[in-house]
Model the fold of this input.
Amino acid sequence: MKTALVCGAGGFIGSHLVKRLKKEGYWVRGVDLKRTEFSPTEADDFVVGDLRDPVLVRQVIDRPFDEVYQLAADMGGAGFIFTGDNDADVMHNSATINLNVCDTAKDAGVKKIFYSSSACIYPERNQLDATTPVTAEESAYPAAPDSEYGWEKLFSERLYFAYARNYGLNVRVARFHNIFGPEGTWTGGREKAPAAICRKVAEAGAGDDVEIWGDGEQTRSFLYIDECLDGVRRLMESEFVGPVNIGSEEMVSINDLARLAMRVAGKDLELRHIDGPLGVRGRNSDNTLIREKLGWAPEQPLEDGIRRTYNWIKQQVEEAKQATVA
Done:
């Protein structure tokens, strides 16, 4: 039986990854500051602990795991990342985690380690036009991310590849593009656009409107969690080390994302545009390299994932209302 460690197993992607690995027959240890919020973890062993603590990291990476997945990070959506208020914590906390995990994995003889980077590493100058963003992997340099979150992610990519060169650590690196789905953060300020919009639509009644930050013409692509995990597992089983984009090429404006959520919900609501943190003007996944190296790329229509996510968030909204009444 293969062994795997998932760092960040209490979070959205990490909890889904644990389930995926268990289905594939792995023995899985998870570690996070918190347990999974929306369903019990399926990990064989779950450690509640702080990966900023090198002692804790040595305790959880206590063997030459077949695979380690480093997903843990201090992060959130635009409302958390782009205000500037959390920059120091984002950089310090995430970099400390990666320094600890990378070095301990080397010492423990871990056979293969995956690092989840982000599309936020791409230069702002290549994403000023909402219709033609540039996100080919080689376009990351000269570096100029639009946030400190992106700078930390880029630093950590280089950290893992330095350990690969100097110590033979067997690494894989992917740049995620806006992963979404059920059992993710949907309220509280750290939620990302699909969850935030689905919540706003679910909460809206007749005559209400849906708030959109900016003019809503900024563009993004969004990848459903199942296809994200397909890409991660294919990368881990390949000989390609990355970095590689894992994202959808179905680019939409935030206005159209809101209209899609309304269509799924069967609601006809107005959009109300307000000031708010926006990030780059346009971003989409360039999947040329992943097709070349892995012979695969995500293809699921955005609407399918939004429907599943909306239905789950609608249930959370209804349960929250019932709890308030009770």
About this structure: The longest strand covers residues 27-32.
